[in-house]
């Protein structure tokens, strides 16, 4: 039977790159039925909900989704773009992708960052005696995907019960007790032991399965003592009891930002909470060519539901170009992660090999690979269109 895939084009370039990924899946011989789900800014503006219940039901039914990108805007801008008849209903915009993660408990986020040989955007550094080194980057980043600073538990002008609770903490009294309540904004960082255990176990298991020698916990336990501290303590206990052959490294997020450009080849698996996982995965993506090469999987191991997406945004300034110039590789790589999830590893590897051959040859490069500003005239300067890059990858599959 054919697999049914829910496609979620979303906004901006999400619609463009998703179509290219499906072209590659068709070309490699992956047989599937595709059903489109409604998500994104259009549905916020006209319905007051960027993640309609009908889309949630589609994913519930079919378990697997390919997602393009969404546009998110600050609170006031989001309100101003609502349909007039919705503005009196007290609606507040909330990111639909965060909503998906929380609704389906897609708490395991994997963002692999691997450099392709020949990519002109790969990280290089100076070696001894003026030599130039291009270290191989092969890092798997596990990001806890549903808690922490992205949990949405926050207030401006917090209500009396919240304010009174905060006033029970001596540091709040000392540092903020004199601040008028209407001048306060509070965002929480909540970690639970169950979710922390799941992301740590996923990271260590991945390291064992794919022969990485280390797992690095990238947090800030010396300052954020309760949440980061709990995660580090649990990581030490897990490593000692279940994964003794795998080294556990502990880095602070700020120091990690320095070290990743000094010795990125030393890192294997990295695990972090929601915000720091987001930061460190974008940083490592910069070493392999930027967000045009950065893919991700978001999975609930219990239900088997998985959503696969590039980590770039909707880039609306590029969406209306007469000929699209954006790099589709991140979206195509996300489709490969979907294939891995569906136990179609050989098919995924065929696509990855095709991408590798195109990049190594160097004859077909999108504007980012040419290091050109993103403007329509890049096609006259030697860059290829989105569709031409896809065509080149497909040609290697034949």
Using DSSP, what is the number of strands? 14
Count of DSSP H/I helices: 15
Major sheet: arrangement of strands: 2-1-3-14-13-4-7-12-10-11
Following the backbone from N to C, one meets helices and strands in this order, namely: EHEHHEHHEEEEEHHEHEHEHEHEEHHHH
Mean pLDDT over the residues: 96
Helicity level = 40-55%
Q: Distance between termini? A: 24 Å
Structural class: alpha/beta
- Fold-level CATH name of the largest domain: Isopropylmalate Dehydrogenase
Descriptive notes:
With about 400 residues, this protein is an alpha/beta fold. It has three domains: about 190 residues, Isopropylmalate Dehydrogenase (3-Layer(aba) Sandwich); about 130 residues, 3-Layer(aba) Sandwich (Isopropylmalate Dehydrogenase), CATH 3.40.718; about 35 residues, no CATH class. It is about 40% helix and about 15% strand. It contains 15 helices and 14 strands. The strands form three sheets. It has a ten-stranded mixed β-sheet, sandwiched between helices. The protein has a two-stranded antiparallel sheet with strand order 5-6. Helix 1 links the parallel strand 1 and strand 2. Helix 8 packs across helix 9. It is globular and about 65 Å long. The model has no long low-confidence stretch (mean pLDDT about 95).
Task: Compile the SSE list and pairings.
Layout: E1 3-10, H1 13-28, E2 32-36, H2 41-47, H3 53-62, E3 64-69, H4 75-80, H5 96-103, E4 108-114, E5 125-126, E6 132-133, E7 138-144, E8 154-156, H6 160-166, H7 170-176, E9 185-187, H8 193-209, E10 214-219, H9 227-242, E11 247-252, H10 253-259, E12 269-272, H11 274-287, E13 295-299, E14 306-310, H12 316-319, H13 329-341, H14 345-361, H15 386-397
Parallel strand pairs: 1-2, 1-3, 3-14, 7-12, 10-11, 10-12
Antiparallel strand pairs: 4-7, 4-13, 5-6, 8-9, 13-14
Helix pairs in contact: 1-13, 1-15, 8-9, 13-14, 14-15
